[in-house]
Structures are given as C-alpha cells and as structure tokens.
Amino acid sequence: MIWLAIVLGAAGTYLEKLIGFILPATVLDRPIIRSIAGLLPVALLAALVIVQTFATGQALSVDARLAGLAVAIVALMLRAPFLVVILSAAITAGVLRATGVAA
Amino acid sequence: MQLPPARRRAIRSNALGIAIATGAYGLSFGAISIASGLTIWQAQALSVLMFTGASQFALVGILGAGGGIAAAVLTAWFLGARNGLYGLHVAPTLQLRGWRRLLAAQLTIDESTAMAVAHEDTTAASRHAFWATGISVFVLWNVGTALGAIGASLLSEPEILGLDAAIPAGFMALLWPRLKDRLSRAVACAGGLVALALIPITAPGVPVLGSALIAVAAGVWVWRRA
Prior knowledge:
The complex is a heterodimer of chains A (103) and B (226). Chain A has 103 residues and is mainly alpha-helical. Chain A has helices at residues 2-22, 25-28, 31-54, 64-77, 82-98; strands at 55-56, 59-60. Chain A folds into two domains: 1-57; 62-103, no CATH class. In chain A, helix 4 (64-77) packs antiparallel against helix 5 (82-98). Chain A is elongated. With 226 residues, chain B is mainly α.
C-alpha cells in the first residue's frame, strides 16, 4: 500500500518536472496557471501545519504538538536554521510529555 | 563562453552550502518517515525517486495520519506542480536533449532553480549553478534521509521524543519563506481554516486537499483582477 503511494506519487511529480522541459512555453506560461501554481504550496502547507498539529484521526485535539509548533514559530522568527526549528519543536513536545504537563 | 575558474569555485561553494542545509533537512525527513510508519527503504525510495521535499513530507505525513493513498498522492502532486513552471524557466538556458534532459528534470527543484535564476547574467554561470546545486542537493538530501531514517529506526518510541511534533514544525518551516506578501498570508490563513473545519467531517487527508480550492479561487481572483 505504502509502496503504491510512493510509486504513483513519484511518477506524477517526475512528470510534472519533465513537462516544463517538453511542452512549449506558450502552453504552460499563462498568468492564471502561474498564479494558481504559486499559491498552491501556500494553501497546502498551511493546511498541513493545521492538520498535523490538531488532528488525531478525525478528532481535534490540543496537545504537546501545539506547544512544539509555537516554539518552532519563535525559532523561525529568530531566523534559526531548519534543523534547530525541527529539534526545538520535538524537544519541547518531548519534555512536556515526559513531565506530564501535556499529552 | 568559458566560465572563469574563480566564478566556478564561488558557485560550487554556494551550492555546497545550500546542499548541507538541505541535507540537515533530509535528516528530519528520514526520521519523520520512520515515525510515520515507513521503512528505511521506503523513505530512501522517496528521496531518490520523488526528490521534492514538500511533496515527500506531505505524502508521508498524510499516510502517517491515516489518510488514504489517493489523498496522499494527490497532495504530493499538487505540491509538485510548481516544479513544472521551474522546468519551463530553466529549459531554455540548459538547452538539453536525451538522457541529460531526463536527468535535469529530476533535479529541477526550488534550490537548483533559484541558483540558476540568481546566476542568469551568463548562460554558462546559470548552467553551472543549476547542475552544481541540483547534484549536490540530491546527494546530501539522500545521505541525510538515510542517516535520519536509520537513526530513528533505532529508537523504540519516537512519540516520546516528540518526533510527531517535528512534523507540523517542518511544514511551518517550509511555509514561512512563502509568506512574504499579504495575498500569501491571506491564502495561508484561509487554507488553514478550511482544513481545520474539514478535519472532523472528512476522512484524514481530505482537509489538506480541500485547502487547494482556496489556492485555485485566489489564483483565479488575482488573474481576473490583473
């Protein structure tokens, strides 16, 4: 099942990359395509942040992940490198759980 | 036109710097993949075959959260759509045929495109920047994935370490540099709210896909106003 997702996902993302090299610019280079393609990552990544923070299956829950995200945002505001952002979120959640402050 | 050796070195060291940063990020991708229930080989296959960070994180995140294959694959495709526009931009500079074009396509990502664009003063510099960045990021992204996946698989309970909290932080770090203008911030807020509203009433994975509608609506709105 996971392998099927990997193969289908990778085949599609490769075709997307290749299409820019193969299709003539006039087909793809339209303002509407440009503006939608530019905004898609913004909407999807924001949705992924929310889902991965609050969803447990179909239930909404507030737990240590939210504290981790808050710390990550502070790290981003301080222009911390990617690994520091990730680790600060993980450590925050880990410590809160280990001390029984949050689930 | 031949590229002066000093310029060549400068481009390569710049590319290596970007690749080292991406490698660190590959480390977290590998670890998060294991925490989401993938095997080491599955994480590695994604980094070799898919090789576009946001799509990889999304696929793994949605599968890990219990979303179906369709939702995971569609989200990965939506996130990868921008690479097609990158290809459109770099193809005239690279001027490739045959296997080199097939290889260049796989290396067409945020980092290699940004470096090629930043060195557009000469064709030779732009080409060198694309290849140097694409190849070094590919290598270190995959090395990072392997180390992260192997490291995380040695841990018994990744949740205790808060690895699940690293996932939203990772998406936030990907989103952060894209929030430059008011339109992007508005789209991010609306996309997040749509996802939040859909979580209790749809299957896992669907809330993220639903937010794509916001991007389409905003894109059409911008296009009609222009």
